[in-house]
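re: ur question from the group chat, yeah i did fold both. here u go
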Amino acid sequence: MLSLALRQAQKVVAEFFPITVDAPLIEQPRGVGGFSGTTIYRVTSDDETYCLKRLPDDVNLARFTELGLLLEDLAEQGLTYVPVPLRTRSGSYVLKDR
């Protein structure tokens, strides 16, 4: 049985990946998390691996969006090692579950 956190992660991943027979694998590695209370998930789909971050309730969403725009801009300028956040279908970097 999946934990509530993993079921929520599946809902978020469905926002970025079409539901297919080869659904993405979602794992929550032990001992991995952010300094701010962020929960980290590893999402593997085909040959790509992504990081899904569940932000704490008190995170500044405007600041998080600014950082996403900055990373996107740096990648567009040719920095290939910059981790660029994916956008939701609606164009946001953040998908709220509440």
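okk and heres the other one u asked abt
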Amino acid sequence: MISQTTRLILAIGFLIRFIAPNNITGLTNILDKSVLFSTPINSYRSLQEGVFLLKNGLDPYSGTIVHHPPLILSFFSILSSNITITNFLFALNDIII
């Protein structure tokens, strides 16, 4: 069972992860380039690259950029038209993983 403190920390982390990129211009680009906050597994930029490659009929896993699981990549390629929903789901995905 998840303790109350853990739930609070996860909720705060989710809110920061969801609200900050939508309200602070350029924050996503700055943090995505930092190795302290972004890894190949949770990089938003590599997710966008993978969605672009998938939508254009190219294999996203043929290079070294995309490390996201195929189901997540397919899921985000369907929802990539609405940036708010995409940010919400990416923040949720970050908290769950």
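fwiw on the second one: The chain is about 65% helix and 0% strand. The chain has a mean pLDDT of 83. idk if thats what u expected
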